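Quick question: what would this complex look like in 3D?
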Amino acid sequence: MTLTAEKKHDLLRQMYTIRAFEEMAEQLYTMGKIHGTMHLSIGMEASAVGAVAALQDDDFILSTHRGHGHCIAKNADLNLMMAEFMGKETGYCRGRGGSMHIADVDGGNLGANGVVGGGIPIAVGVGLSQKMQKTGRICLSFFGDGAANLGPFHEALNMAAIWTLPVVFVCENNQYAMSYSAKKAFAIDKISDRAAAYGMPGETVDGNDLMAVYTAVRRAVDRARDGGGPSLIESSTYRWRGHSKSDANRYRSKAEIEEWRAKDPIARFRQQLIDAGELDDQGADAIMQAASGAIDTAVEFADSSPEPDLATIEDGVYA
Amino acid sequence: MPRELTYLEAVREALQQEMRRDERVFVIGEDVGVYGGAFGVTRGMVEEFGEERIIDTPISELGIAGAITGAALTGMRPVGEIMFMDFTTLAAEQLVNQAAKIRFMFGGNATVPFVLRTPAGSGTGAAAQHSQSLENWFVHVPGLKVVMPSTPYDAKGLLVASIRDDNPVMFIENKLLYKSRGPVPEEIYTLPLSVSEVKREGRDVTIVATAIMVQRALEAARQLAEMGIEVEVVDPRTLKPLDRQPIIASVIKTGRVLIVHEACKTGGFGGELAAVIAGSEAFDFLDAPIIRLAGRDMPIPYNRTLEYHTVPQVDDIVQAARKLAEGSV
Ligand SMILES: Cc1ncc(C[n+]2csc(CCOP(=O)(O)OP(=O)(O)O)c2C)c(N)n1
């Protein structure tokens, strides 16, 4: 379960890339280049990267409306992602999906989702299909604390458990579903406690500690791959930004946000690597710069990409 | 000058005034409290009415629909909010199988007086899962009323009437209309449900339109008037139960009808309207086929240009009405 220094550098790079992508997304929004909304996961990078690091390349994930991090962690092509965000023909979904619907089917990312909890039952179907086809692949389903209160969550976890499916449920508890605090939305302390009700292991981890997320998800992934069935991991983290661009942040305090900003998962992992002698400051800065360079390239690619041709408007409605 | 409000403010004022007047009325939905609702409709209301009457819920659309059903069944007059109409799909079981049928199944011995408010429509770049117009899903369900206001004035009067109505009412707001302004009286008033309104008189072509398409049709009518074509615009306002007579009367007068709505064409409300007109006494007065302009039969794309061309715009209405008037259809 140990990771090589090289792999850890790559994970740090992914975290910096997510941060750079989202900071750029904000800028593009302010510049009026993005029509629609956007949901940023700044502050939650360790959760996405740590979880996906526990997968093999050919495993599957399903993501959420806050999915940039999951997408990048699953090794998405940044150019195609940025082009999709800008609604261009060259984007992952030919500009039809936008950031809330990015899918990289070949890369095993079966889609972000605009419907809260919408992907959880699909993950069960993917797990079922892997079991039937004996592929040995597993499916990781990302969703938020809010999603854990929807009916589909309960139906999906039960089915995955009774059929011993190779699915790992990762609940990213970033403490709020829009304005609704998890403290108010649940009468239990730990969302992972719900696992017991379905007959699967459950665990809550520090979602701002990449290694903690990796270790817990890796255990669940190994178990799923060995035929042990699903697990529920709650990754406890925080989104620094508002829910979406129209959020006035009336439901939480500046002090709370500051408190969590101090727990920046990127700075933390970087320091862990430096303390372990696996990286030095210069090396870390180089990784950070490479990440933001890649985002600049992606913007250039997207900017110079064509808009979809109106004549193709109905493409893709039917196969 | 009469006082003007936005459509959004008109909805809010209806809720506030009705809550002040009737203690049984309360609001329940996701982020309706401190956040004030995704579009800001309930902003400031929790300060006045408290968390007991402006109730934030978990993300549980089915739960919201069930809660308003049960509360309505037992003495309250709840107003539920589903943040985007797309998510009424998650609430559908309670709305379709339960709320809509309870009164009938119980032999008329119960009423379910709730309103379920929800914003519909495209044009905000929110893509396929946040932009749908699913009104016809509910038009198809006996026992539900379906209301779709097109102006701030209508929004207030129809919402108050919907809250006072003894049936479950689907009250469908339009996202792009939220910012539109118009005269709205300060005092509380009702506009009766199931009364279609002629929004503009004309002799050449009747346009029957719903929600934002009423506004686009009125703009088209202004442009067509400059070309010498006088368009009459009729707004059903309540899609179910439908007030047919003003529509039929208008078609008898003009002999030509264009139906415009945002929802997908196939299986849409326009087909129903066309059948109502064709099966009425207006049939003999038709000088041209009944024409429908509607959303394409496809999900709403993210890309701005594609999105724009997925649903009828003013130019499309002008062209279609012009062809009709000139007899070239
Ligand atoms: C079924 C459904 N209901 C409501 C919404 C509107 N909505 C979008 S995101 C969101 C909050 C989701 O919270 P959570 O699951 O905790 O994820 P987070 O946004 O915190 O990442 C809501 C209510 C939606 N997209 N889908």
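Answer marked as accepted. The CA atoms of residues 18 and 72 of chain A lie 7 Å apart.
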